[in-house]
Write a structure and sequence with these properties.
Elements: E1 7-11, E2 16-22, H1 27-36, E3 41-50, H2 52-67, E4 73-75, H3 79-90, H4 105-142, H5 149-159, H6 164-186, H7 195-233, H8 236-242, H9 247-286, H10 290-300, H11 303-329, H12 335-367
Parallel strand pairs: 2-3, 3-4
Antiparallel strand pairs: 1-2
Domain STAS: 42-119
Keywords: Cell inner membrane, Cell membrane, Membrane, Transmembrane, Transmembrane helix
Membrane topology: Multi-pass membrane protein
Length: 369
């Protein structure tokens, strides 16, 4: 039968014969025409030229026949073309699919053990970076000239001032939701006035600082990891060490110190906006005037609720800062590692903050606060 694009396929007693040039220009047509034939032998003695594309078509056809359990004989190649065909055949991708291996109980136990060991190593690394921060902070406080005030102020603006709008809006909406949902339940018992206590205690004690810490963890932990990780990829941290600059003094202490200063302030802003949102909704939904709301807030809300929330703020700040800085310092030399560490820092910071809040709740309940 007549093929196209510079080569011919003819029938022989033992199979087919190819004549002409088997090059890249005819590879597609050659592959299409050879796929239609079931010949067991191909005579290539009439081929005038063959490049790697033609050799690839022949090698792929021979491998497919072998996979089906039949042999394909290529005759008349010559030494040079046979060597070319063998070289191309060695580079063919392996198409054998390995059946998925079923996990045994031992494999699952080993995977669990590896996960637990990885979590333990991660906790040890966080503890080590906490120690580095505390050690360098004490050193800088004893030697104030070494404290990078400009860097601390810059990070205060980044982690604190720029977070005020989102924190204030979040707290305001939380106060509105608490007042609206609380009034719907308390109205059934004629106790709408207790919505003031519900709003005050929930926001001052738990929601104000917790949700603020979660928002800051999402913004700041990712920012710390991305910034320090990018410097690690560009080998700027190695350059610092070469110049005699301690990376902990330049990168870790200013960031965590800025969080220590700004998170309590953001928590106070969240408390004020949350109570304001709750008071506004209580006025619109239940008719509790601002004066009545303020009077009940002052009379029935103990200052200990505010203290409980503010005590948590420095701990949450250290958690977020240490997790973010550790993630950045652990970045390898590729962007995939940077993205993975950034995501891990956000998740770890939020999870650790929630766990710490639960432990604080148990502790304060035990001590009667």
């Amino acid at each position: 039968m007549q093929a196209e694009d510079g080569f011919d396929i003819t029938q022989t007693d033992r199979g087919i014969a190819l004549t002409g040039a088997l090059t890249l220009h005819v590879a597609s047509a050659l592959h299409r025409d050879l796929a239609r034939t079931q010949a067991a032998e191909i005579d290539l003695s009439g081929v005038t030229r063959m490049d790697t594309a033609g050799a690839y078509v022949l090698a792929d056809l021979r491998r497919r026949r072998s996979a089906d359990g039949t042999d394909l004989h290529l005759v008349g190649l010559g030494d040079q073309r046979a060597a070319l065909l063998d070289t191309v055949a060695e580079t063919l991708p392996d198409q054998t699919e390995q059946p998925p291996r079923r996990m045994t109980a031992t494999d699952r136990l080993a995977a669990l053990g590896e996960a637990m060991a990885g979590a333990a190593r991660y906790q040890i690394e966080l503890t080590a970076y906490l120690g580095i921060f505390l050690g360098r902070l004490v050193h800088n406080l004893l030697h104030p000239r070494e404290l990078r005030i400009t860097s601390v102020v810059h990070h205060c603006q980044e982690v604190g001032l720029k977070a005020v709008p989102i924190v204030a809006l979040m707290a305001f909406l939380i106060g509105v939701v608490l007042a609206f949902q609380g009034s719907a339940q308390l109205r059934q018992f004629g106790a709408e006035v207790f919505v003031v206590d519900l709003i005050a205690i929930s926001i001052l004690r738990e929601l104000g600082i917790l949700l603020t810490a979660i928002i800051v963890a999402g913004r700041t932990a990712s920012s710390f990891t991305a910034a320090i990780g990018a410097m690690k990829m560009r080998e700027e941290i190695d350059a610092m060490q070469t110049l005699g600059v301690n990376p902990a003094d330049a990168l870790i202490v200013p960031r965590i110190l800025a969080l220590l200063l700004m998170l309590p302030i953001l928590g106070l802003i969240a408390n004020v906006m949350g109570i304001f949102g709750g008071a506004l909704m209580a006025w619109l939904d239940m008719g509790i005037s601002p004066g009545m709301f303020r009077a009940r807030l002052v009379e029935d809300t103990d200052v200990s609720h505010l203290l409980v929330g503010m005590i948590k703020a420095p701990v949450f700040a250290v958690i977020i800062g240490v997790v973010g800085c550790q993630g950045g310092m652990s970045v390898k030399g590729d962007t995939e590692s940077l993205g993975r560490r950034t995501s891990q820092s956000v998740v770890s910071a939020i999870f650790t903050v929630i766990v710490a809040d639960a432990l604080f709740s148990i502790f304060f309940q035990r001590v009667g606060m």
